[in-house]
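Sequence only, no structure available. Ideas?
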Amino acid sequence: MKPTTYYLYPFILVCLLGIPGIVFSSTIDDVSYSSIKEVRESDVLLEHNGPSVEQFSRCSISSGECTQVDKDTSLYPAILGDHTYETGPNGDTAVYTIKLADKSLHFLYTIDSGDPVLRRVLPFTDHTTRLRFSNNGSYLLAATVSGDLIRYTIADNTVERMTTTQRTFPFFQVSPRGTYVSAYNYSFGEHRLWNLDNKTLTSIDATEPAFVEFNDTEDEVVFVTQGQDGHTTLTTAPLPYSSDTAEKELTRGTTVRDYLYVGNDLYLIDNNNGFYSYDLFRISTNGDRTLVAENVSYGQYIREIDGKLLFLSHNDAQTVVTAYNPEAETLTELTHTTTPSALDTISRTAVEYNGRNAVLWEPEEGNTTNTLFVWLHGGPKRQTSLSFHPYLSYAVYDAVLIELVESGASVLRLDYTGSEGYSAQDQERLVGNIGKVEVNDIVKATQSQASRDNIDKVHLIGNSYGGYLALRAITEEPDLFDSAISINGVTNWYTLLTAIPDSLFARYFNGAPDLHNLEQYFSASVFSGLPEVPDNTPILLFYGENDSTIPSAQSIDYHAYARTLGKNTTLVELPNESHILREDSSLQKLCGVIAEELNLQRVQCN
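Reply:
I predicted one. Tokens follow.
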């Protein structure tokens, strides 16, 4: 069981080949993304988000019926005025922690009905970083700040302790019967399994940090490794595990988004049926693979509750929480929202340019303006989608892009080098080559698409890392692109990584700025080629007032420098926004400024 905290068939045959066009439509107001907030027995509390919209509903998994509730609603009672605590598998037991200066006090409660009832104070006082009940309800497992693993037996109030060399426990997982604890170790690039019965440690080589999942009988595990083809591969192995254990690859050449055992059957989300098509599959104990549901979102982990699976279905501008009953093999959607009303039709097609995958959004026939927007997602380890993106943080931009398409423009959504869905070797091509290999992808894809559709105007638009690429690409090919639009984009890697030397982006430059790698930082600059950009080329810079990921100074300083060169830059602050835009007014402003500055008279930012 993963933690309860929330966070199309093969189509590429030639250089530019698409699947049949599919039509869909939506506006900013149609975006509604449901997610699981709490689960308890057969009830689930859902949160529904969209630009400036936040609603909640309580649903029955058994009947599928939902009722709207207030934001402060919880399926669990408050303990000392607080709803933040770890609960047992049946929702009738809880552990509540009070952290003091030199120790932590852990209290075991019964919460099956009425007010919480204190059962006992637990016989350990360690500060903990992880707390988790085993699925059978017999144990509470804890990881301490000093690196110990604790197994507390609820029935007899006893504590077992195992000392480890690990101080943090990312991707912390507990086996169903409480025998094993697993976590990922970044230093050694491996999954670690601690057997608390015999106090032994087992390591499994794995370059990809992820959860280890255990089947119900604890005689098999599944985990993510890097396959021989360089793709993320889902692999299973019997327990107990040793260096001689025979591993079996369950997937090859696909992108696995999530996986979970229900009993001894394995469920997984991957794109086996197409680069942009994510579906839910079941692999039974005899190895048979069957399709459970199509168009599944990977915006939230699969959950098991009351013997059923909860996951997110993807329906254009909506994600809908769906329950699957393995015994009856039935699917039930849990939502109180309605399907968006149709406006204009938009065609979406999966395409390929010189080995790079992309999605092309086009207006209906007869409505074209011979204008192309090239959308560059952030990340870089992200992947675009056929319809609205599974992550709400990207879906809000999709709503703006649709307004552009409905005005007659086409939008090319490119998965450049370093994007998710390709091999590990593809990711490594970025090291020492930031701003080179991705820009080469952008240029080639743009040239190919522009020549096919007789495009007159090409505009670059991207957020975060994609915003950087828009600014970088226009300096490399100023005659190819007619504008660049950066939303919370990076403009100066040197200053950013000097301030944050442990950023994950530092690896792409072989470390934080130093004498040995200054040339790599200079070659990735968006400033060096700026004088060659025509003075009348619009460059639009949007930034969130409260962005703590990419400081606003990145956009402000670029604007100031570009102005000294006489460039046509527009700087737009989005009040109260952070790195991820959440307000409808910000999206309206984004759309309106783009339409005005690029003279797009047919765009209706509604």
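Helices lie at 392-406, 424-428, 437-453, 465-476, 493-499, 518-523, 553-564, 584-597.
Hope that gets you unstuck.
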